[in-house]
Amino acid sequence: MSPPRRLTIAVLRHNPRQPGSLPRWQRYEVEEADGMTLFIALNEIREKQDPTLQFDFVCRAGICGSCAMLIDGKPALACRTLTRMLGDEVRLAPLPFFELIGDLSVDTGKWMRGMSERVQGWLQAQGAEPDLHRIEAAMDPDLADRIYELDRCIECGCCVAGCGTARMREDFVGAVGMNRIARFRLDPRDSRSDADWYDIVGNDDGVFGCMSLLACQDLCPKQLPLATQIAYLRRSMARQGWA
Amino acid sequence: MKVVQTEVLVIGGGLAGLRLAVAVQRRGHEAIVLSLVPAKRSHSKAAQGGMQASLGNVIKGQGDNEDVHFEDTVRGSDWGADQQVVRMFVHTAPQAVRELAAWGVPWSRVRAGDREVVINGQRTTITERTEAHGLIAQRDFGGTKKWRTCHVSDGTGHAMLQAVADQAIAGGIPVHERTEALALIHDGRRCHGAVVRNLVDGSLTAYLAKATAIATGGAGRLYRVTTNAVICEGIGHALALETGVAALGNMEAVQFHPTGIFPAGILVTEGCRGDGGLLKDASGHRFMPDYEPEKKELASRDVVSRRMEQHIRAGKGVKSRFGDHLWLDITLLGEKHIRTNLREVYEICQSFLGTDPVKDPIAVRPAQHYTMGGVRTDAHGHSTGLVGLFAAGEAACWDLHGFNRLGGNSVAETVVAGRIVGEAIADFCADPAQDASVPMGLVREFMQREAANLQAMAGSGREDASALRVRMQEIMTEKVGIFRTGGELRAAVDELQSLLVRSRRIGLRSADLGANPELVTAYRVQKMLKLALTIAYGALTRTESRGAHYREDFPRRDDAAWLKRTLARWPRAGDTLPELGYEALDVSAMELPPGWRGYGAKDYIDHPDTPARAAAVAALREQLAGADRFAVQRSLMPWEHLLPAALRGRNERIDERLPTP
User: Fold this and answer.
1) B428-449 pLDDT per residue, tens
2) Could you tell me which of B617, B570, B566 has the C-alpha nearest to residue B589?
3) Which of A190, A208, B159, B359 counts the highest number of beta carbons within 10 A?
């Protein structure tokens, strides 16, 4: 067996709360291990070399969306990036667009909640709440599966970080926001009509701001069908605006 | 001194905390949720396979009801559970599933007609009823008599958390993200809130509240190999313990999940086995039927995990450079099933193992998974030691799970307990007799104490926080794991005590009191060591085997001596061990007196009251033969009075229709 690789991990560091801190690249060296992910590598660096290095991991299993960062320039989830897929030198930088907390840690949570509030990303049912003692309303099984397909979004922020429009429009809801709307539009339990949706995303911060560059779809770690959903939504909203 | 006032302070933004906050808010009370991370990133998300609720929609769930769910849960707990709490839970679970459906959870639904499934390694065709078409579907899980696990593909926790977090957003409930409670503010009798640290800038704030609820999930990170997220460090448990008056119940009851991916410990769902997946050894032999002819791969988790480790000890494991493991084989389920019903499993195998579960078996070995023990509360989630302190979900011990939790009962518990405890908190807040003025001197004292502790760590100590933590995790995995012995537990307790002493002399490499990951590790490891000691010492003292607590030197369940709940308190901060007390379970009030679980070991020592109670139950059942099941149940063990009025009343099923209104 060949000896393990020495990996160089260069991290773009900056702590905006520390007076005098300026963004800089800092290089760390680690010995690659079998099955090593960036989660393992970064934790090893923090435990053994630099206890001040900031980054976010929660589930370390690719389901919570905490650890999105720029890996060699591309937004991706660090926890499920195996180092063996990378070169001898890796460059890690915080996700752009979101407020920087420090080093590789950004505040996606605040932005996502704000987005949710703006697109009213929760189910708005019609009528009174159902009697929960009684059998639930039936739903077409295929439809339930299709809703889940869109519900799988983990709000990691990769789509927004890779988005051309988001660079220009601070209030753009992003693919994550439009996917959320597509999800509730599909759901017969939600009472909102296209007229309601038009009020929310029928504008340049919504679906008409999208330039169809589609990096969102390329970068989505959950492989959500974002391009199709945005296209459908835009067509419906255009029809709505015309009417 | 920064102060935030609220009526209800909820510590923890996972399913239990959020559901509780929604319940409180809907009753007109103000709540603030504290969360280490954005709420939707909480560990509740990791629940894959599903949530138990006896809807009985699928044909293999026909005949399921609260009674069957009750018995499965009590047997699963190895009779450690509080049976009234189990009744409250199994009754409310169907309503909770239906409520989540109304909130938008895209539950997988029943398709009427024939479908091919794998049962006991065989492809079989079953036929779903026309009247069930489109209703919420259930899958099989371990330790259950019926197919009862409602699911959203294998992303159940994710979908549930989306829906509940969305309800919190819709209700405008503030979630203070990236904040961490360091201590509960209390006077030894009454809880007034918490000292809270902002993880971004390091500032401390006193959050003052009439009611404080702990919903911080589990403590898996006390172990080296765990399925738990990195934030599951048991800090909420420790907050209660450090009050000296609130007790933790049954901390030695720690669940190991049979199928953690080897060696990373990432979970693959019990749904793999529920849907027909098999466990195999190095020679490709399916070994579980040799040990557990009744339930095979689908015995309860404690039993399956033990059998797997036993098989590895017998030399039948697969050798690898990281140690031995076994195989989980789901290839027989076919590509379509795996890529639709087990798609997270598919993704995890692809991303972390670089293997394709459609073609290759998955390397697995049991990993720490669930903390049955928690803040000891009454049936309404109210701490038995501190007024105004509540707990719900994995952090609580009200006590639904006893010594072993059934798969699918934990996500169900989060939303059920969130609702029930939320109602109790609303009652508490509405009660003028519970009004209390907050002594500001006390608040200042707690704030100063916490600030001084942080300052001290940035000072002259020499101990390395990370190293202490790593050693603790090794001890817990090696000596306080699936198989336990008095000698190893003694050694674990001794060494953990010395680590705790050393943790009082931690020195940081960076003295920054702001965003400093090492500082976080430092103050958490002090708390985690107390918790580790509570587990290890409780395990050392409990000289029997029950559920997930297995003593090789005391292999039998001993109801005569040990049918009781461990209560641990830590009254003196400078001590290195908790004080243990015990709370006996009352056999004469049990609906289901202790017996054989239906899987696992058959020999146990009876409680002296068991034969009399078993005879009384049998006599009552005979006397009421012909009466409906509700009347029989009521006569055996009343519980409905404990439930909020809105939740009482029968649950409808296809085979148990309610009269049309």
Assistant:
1) 999 999 998 999 999 999 999 9
2) B617
3) B159
**Both tokens of residue B174?**
């503030």
In this complex, the residue of B135, B264, B658 whose CB is nearest that of residue A133 is B658
Where are the extended beta strands (E) located within B144-190? 149-150, 175-177, 179-186
Looking at the whole model, is its pTM more than 0.95? yes
| pLDDT for residue B510 | 84
CB contact under 8 A, A141 and B108: yes
Reported as a single tens digit per residue, the pLDDT across A12-66 is: 999 999 889 999 999 999 999 888 999 999 999 998 899 899 999 999 999 999 9
Query: Quick check: A135 and B510 CB within 8 A?
Result: no
pLDDT band at B395 (very low <50, low <70, confident <90, very high): very high
- Reply yes or no on whether B257 is catalytic: yes
Of the candidates B128, B124, B92, B123, the residue with the CA atom closest to the CA atom of residue B109 = B128
Mean pLDDT of chain B: 96
Q: Is-catalytic flag, B273?
A: yes
Catalytic residue among B158, B197, B257, B557: B257
- The Cα–Cα gap between B637 and B316 comes to 46
Asked if the C-beta of B619 comes within 8 angstroms of chain A's C-beta atoms, the answer is no
β partners of residue B329: B278
Distances (CA, A) of B111 to A136, B97, B310: 15, 19, 40
With an 8 Å Cβ cutoff, are A58 and B344 in contact?
no
Inspect the interface and report whether the beta carbons of A144 and B340 lie closer than 8 Å.
Answer: no
Using the Cβ of B46 and the Cβ atoms of chain A, whether some distance falls under 8 Å is answered with yes
The verdict on whether omega for the bond into residue B571 sits within 30 degrees of 0, i.e. cis, is: no
Contacts of B521 in chain A (CB under 8 A): 51
Tell which B residues from 512 to 541 touch A, by Cβ distance under 8 Å.
512, 514-518, 521
Q: Residue B346 — pLDDT band, cuts 50, 70, 90? A: very high
Among residues B37, B89, B31, the alpha carbon closest in space to that of B213 is found at: B31
Question: How many CB pairs (< 8 A) connect A and B?
Answer: 199
Instruction: Note the pLDDT of residue B460.
Output: 78
Q: Which two tokens stand for residue B85?
A: 């709490």
Work out whether strand B149-150 and strand B175-177 pair parallel, antiparallel, or are unpaired. Answer: unpaired
Are B412 and B418 spatial neighbours (Cβ–Cβ below 8 Å)?
A: no
Minimum distance, in Å, between the CA of residue A213 and any CA atom of chain B = 26
Query: Cβ contacts (< 8 Å) between B98 and chain A: which residues?
Result: 130, 132, 134, 136
The dihedral region occupied by B598, where left means phi > 0, alpha psi between -120 and 50, and beta the remainder, is left
Check whether A149 has a pLDDT greater than 90: yes
pLDDT one-digit tens code per residue, B326-335? 999 999 999 9
Average pLDDT value for chain A: 95
Where residue B375 falls among pLDDT bands split at 50, 70, 90? very high
Q: Does B102 contact A at CB distance below 8 Å? A: yes
Whether residue A82 contacts residue A35, with contact meaning beta carbons closer than 8 Å, is answered with yes
Give the per-residue pLDDT at A1. 60
Identify the helix (H) or strand (E) that includes residue A154.
none
Tell me the HSE value of B380 on the side-chain side, using a 13 A CA sphere: 16
**Residue in chain B nearest A155 by alpha carbon:** B40
